[in-house]
Amino acid sequence: MSPRLSTVILPADRWHEGGRAKWRRAEELGFHAAYTYDHLTWRSFREGPWFGALPTLTAAATATDRLRLGTLVTSPNFRHPVTLAKELISLDDISGGRITLGVGAGGNGFDATALGQEAWTPRERADRFAEFVPLLDRLLTEDAVTHRGTHYSADEARNIPGCVQRPRLPFAVAATGPRGVRLAARHGQAWVTTGDPKLYEEGTPEQSIEALRGQIGKLDKACTEIGRDVAEMDKILLTGFTPERSGLLESVDAFVDFAGRHQEIGFTEIVLHWPIPDSDFAADQSVFESIAAEAAAQLG
């Protein structure tokens, strides 16, 4: 079975000046899902337009009918599980049960200090993530939750009627470290990676494949330890951060070659960034749309 093809649309357009049209076009092109980043701003986009992820997804839900929607990814950097759960349940309802929550530990970018706090260390991020995900899981599956944790608390937080998707909307957990991978195995319906960041600048495609194969092996081990079959989980590759990033969207053949090699090692979904001129994600829109229309048949 060929991997599903999805896209990620950055929230950098005013809704009525191109934003809405992109989400509708993603559905017309037959993408499995369209995701967006959940940041307050991001890298080179900091001085330009950037809108909120959850309001954008709510608007996208009303502009589409079939397309799955989600975040790649939400993190604890500026989110609290109690308020996030309420918003997710509302979004899942508005979309008719089409939401996937991509969730990760966060990083040290602009989000890390935007609320006035010091940036957390990698250990602090991992500690918070380890508490954030299980609590969010409970909040989305139980009518009322009370929790007293090290980093997060809830006092009879009510989430009636719960998600449209049962027992809750799916989690796609972004993780490569041992603690995060164990969280993915226990709580995730899917696992997300961008590859090995150490290979981004000077690595080779072959090295990247081996690194990704190793990551999937760690996920397999974590699943085995809790008696879970890793085959139950979707494996999602968010492209744009591997050595092949510059040539990935040059042609349909180039993408099919890339996708085929990653399909062979176990990836079930491949996510492409919607082209943005004059950015790291610049690409020929017509080639991008040809990939959406033609690649799945060639991979099948």
Question: What can you see in these coordinates?
Answer:
With 300 residues, the chain is of the alpha/beta class. It has helices at residues 19-28, 53-63, 81-95, 122-141, 178-187, 205-225, 252-264, 285-299; strands at residues 4-8, 33-36, 68-74, 99-103, 144-148, 153-158, 171-174, 190-193, 234-238, 269-273. The protein has an 8-stranded parallel β-barrel with strand order 1-2-3-4-7-8-9-10, surrounded by 5 helices. It has a two-stranded antiparallel sheet with strand order 5-6. Strand 5 (144-148) and strand 6 form a beta hairpin. The longest helix is centred in the C-terminal third of the chain and has 21 residues, at 205-225. The radius of gyration is 19 Å and the shape is globular.
Q: What distinguishing features does this structure have?
A:
300 residues, alpha/beta, eight-stranded parallel β-barrel, two-stranded antiparallel sheet, 8 helices, 10 strands, 38% helix, globular
Series of secondary-structure elements, N-terminal to C-terminal? EHEHEHEHEEEHEHEHEH
Biggest sheet: strand arrangement: 1-2-3-4-7-8-9-10
Helical content band: 25-40%
Low-confidence stretches: none
Radius of gyration computed on alpha carbons: 19 Å
Major β-sheet profile: 8 strands, parallel, barrel
**What is the overall silhouette?**
globular
Fraction in beta strands: 15-25%
